[in-house]
Amino acid sequence: MRRLPLPLLLAAVGLGIGLGEPEPPAPSGTQCVEHDCFAVYWEPGPFASASAACERHGGHLMTVRSTVAEDAIGLLLRDRGGRLWLGLRLPTRCTEPAQRLRGFQWVTGDVRTDYDNWAPSGRRCGQLCVAVSRQLSWEERRCEEQADGFLCEYNYPDSCQRLPPADGTSVTYRTPFGADGKDLVVLPPGSSAFVSPLGLRLRCEAATAGEKMRWGRSEPGAWPCSLANGGCEGSCEELDGAPRCVCPTGKKLGPDGRGCVSPCAGAPCQHHCVPDGERFHCMCSEGYWLGPDGSSCHDIDDCVRMPEVCDQVCRNTEGGFECLCHHGYEMVEGHCTPVSSCNTGTCSHICEDVPGGYRCSCHDGYVVDLMNPTQCVLQCENGECPAECNFGSLSCVCPDGFVMDHLPNGVTLCVDIDECDNNYCEHNCTNTPGSYVCHCLPGYELFDTNHCRLVSTEDSVDEYSGDSGPTLPVPSLVPPKAEHLHPGVLVGITVGVLCAALVLLAVSYHLARKRCHPPSSMEYKYGSPREKVMGLQQVSTSQKL
Questions:
Q1: Where are the domains of the chain?
Q2: What are the pLDDT digits (tens) for 75-93?
Q3: Fewest C-beta in 10 Å: which of 109, 184, 274, 421?
Q4: Cα 137 from Cα 78, distance rounded (Å)
């Protein structure tokens, strides 16, 4: 294998080429609060190398969004001169002095802030970054320039408090980003604490997922009770110099020998676990029974235990049952009822189930609409009927062909319109409830609703003989329209017809009597009045004899 020359090897080590990233230097000072730690590194370099050094331990260049962060910078600098890179850089070509951040952006990708402290400067352009000076003012500098160091920020969801002091002990802390010291008040997750002369090495961590951070160690059991209660969640006891943790009633020691957990923690119960002192027992949900192993649960077939719980069909389900109905039935309030076609029918008034479907009917005063059998219309056969009124809106409606009439007593009627008075028909007209019918004179036929036309001679050929009948004369004038007869005229015609019938009856009776004379009667014909008188005298003489 070919080896690199010593000068190239040293250069590779300095640049970290192929040998891993160089370990960032230890911070010269650290300040931690509950969820954040700030560290200062006095390591000269450009903005890019400073940003990369912070990111190698899970942090980023410091963002100064409030006076709390500014106070932390003041403590870290400790009156030392120099300029340190902050996490501000210019993503645009030029600055905007009118803006709070002048067009700069935090390395976290946002511009949120409640604080700024710019040094006086006009509009500048180019690749610019921000450094903070001893006076804590922000200065715009070119990103490729060298600064005296940089400030890093590390964020955590939780932290551990420093260990309480114990007689004859000394604690030294170390953070995940390499800060060492004894004065740290808050420690981020992953920090370690070395306790001398006990020789204890503790770690800030959560005993189980989701728990708060606390000091622990890989070995189970308590450490000396004088230091942080031996790490016990409950009480710490020392018997014959051996510390041990004791949990309150209803709990037991966890796997680490220091935390307290429920007796049901890690229990094999499939459904429910019920604590019983430091022990437990399993239970199943309703509809299940506990298996022979004391932990598994098995479904109960409710349809076998309760065969008549359903009207028609019972189907067992996991942990329960379901009632079903046969075809043609539906579930209504827990019972199977026949399916009514009226449920999907569109009857406006009354619906009645019939074999194979349903039938619509109407309330009194209404009839089924012939054009739409599911709807009802007002029945106005006698020329008038009550109007259909909506009392909520005080509005009334009448069927087509009727007019509304308000009576003095408050009743609203629908009165039939006599369309024949409007001469809609060309020849004759017959009024009907809500409409009218046109008729034509002999020799004419309707070709639309209102008009008549002559019957074609071709239409009058005898269907059987093929001979045409007598040709009707074509009137030279259009026949006058038939006028409506007055009721008095109709009465007169009727009386005249009856009188004529009586006269015909009397004449018929008289003729019948003449044909039925007795045999002794004789009829004579007289040629003159004299003969008529002589004849009468002879008849009279013969009657006397």
A1: 24-155, 160-261, 305-338, 420-460
A2: 998 878 899 999 999 999 9
A3: 109
A4: 15
